[in-house]
Amino acid sequence: MRQVSNLYKALSDQNRLRILMMLKDKPMCVCEIVNVLQLANSTVSKHLSILRNVDLIMDEKDGRWVNYRLAQSDESDLIDNVMSQLNSLFIGDETINKDRQAVREADRHQICAS
Amino acid sequence: MRQVSNLYKALSDQNRLRILMMLKDKPMCVCEIVNVLQLANSTVSKHLSILRNVDLIMDEKDGRWVNYRLAQSDESDLIDNVMSQLNSLFIGDETINKDRQAVREADRHQICAS
DNA sequence: TCTCCATTTCGTTATCTGGCGAAATATACA
DNA sequence: TGTATATTTCGCCAGATAACGAAATGGAGA
Questions:
Q1: Which residue of A81, A82, A93 is in closest CB contact with B1?
Q2: Sheet strands side by side (includes B28-29)
Q3: pLDDT by residue (tens digit) across A95-106?
Q4: How many domains are contained in chain B?
Q5: CATH number of the domain encompassing residue A53
Q6: CA dihedral for B7, B9, A53, A4, sign (positive or negative)
Q7: What's the CA B39/C1' C19 distance, rounded, in angstroms?
């Protein structure tokens, strides 16, 4: 019960929803996400840990970066189910479209170390 | 965007999840729900208005009672999608099973006016 | 080793949320 | 009309949440 409500709590924040939809395209490091959402590093890091705690995303160390990606689908199919729900809920959403455009155009090496 | 996060906010409370799962079985009035959740009338009423505001449930006046039921499925299929997600997330959940048992055994006319 | 930089953790603050009881509203029935 | 009952609304309080900046952590490379 607590686990289920925590899942929906994780999904109940606009910035975390934007993060999930961005990660559909490709894995991203924290500073790339900061660049899109325009929030403090610490804030984005916390959002990511909330999403990780409910198994919606995973992290992978890559040198000094940490790449975040959508979780692998497992036997519960949780992530597939959630993402297909989000896809239909966000059809035509302006914020989501702009974010994904920004992600496509961004280059990690230009954004970070600014 | 706001609409989507509000949907998940509505789903992020354990008592509201319990209400949705109870309503799968049959429409219920506020005092029946109060009887199961053991919360104040005013608290349950507020939970119901939050669920109604995101179109997950509807209300129908019936004399001095107000019956709440799951929303009708519409072209967006929101309610069907959400409820099938909840069904799989709550498989084997003790609280949910007990609630639904209590609902089956309860008689509105004995519970209300106590 | 030392420095740089990405990330996380910590401490603080403003706002949101869920809970309650009391008062207001609405309907049935004597 | 008056009373009883179901529900909603209001005002309040305690705890949760999202935001920030500063400090701590950890890896890369000089």
A1: A93
A2: B28-29, B65-70, B57-62
A3: 999 999 999 988
A4: 1
A5: 1.10.10.10
A6: negative
A7: 8
pLDDT tens digits for A12-67? 999 999 999 999 999 999 999 999 999 999 999 999 999 999 999 999 999 889 99
Cα–Cα dist A66/A63, whole Å? 8
For residue B88, which residues of chain A lie inside 8 Å, CB to CB? 76, 81
**A39 in Cβ contact with A15 (< 8 Å):** yes
The amino acid sitting at A43 is: T
DSSP state of A107: -
- Report the alpha-carbon distance of residue A53 to residue A2 in Å, rounded: 13
Residue type, B14: Q
Instruction: Specify whether the CB–CB gap between A54 and A85 falls below 8 A.
Output: no
Q: What is residue A74's predicted lDDT score, i.e. its pLDDT? A: 86
Whole-number pLDDT of residue B82: 97
Other CB atoms closer than 10 Å to residue A18's CB: what's the count? 23
Does B114 score more than 70 pLDDT? Answer: no
Sheet containing strand A28-29, edge to edge, reads A28-29, A65-70, A57-62
B91/A contact by beta carbon, under 8 A: no
Give the domain range for residue B96: 2-111
Q: Do B4 and A86 touch (CB under 8 A)?
A: yes
**pTM for this model (two decimals):** 0.94
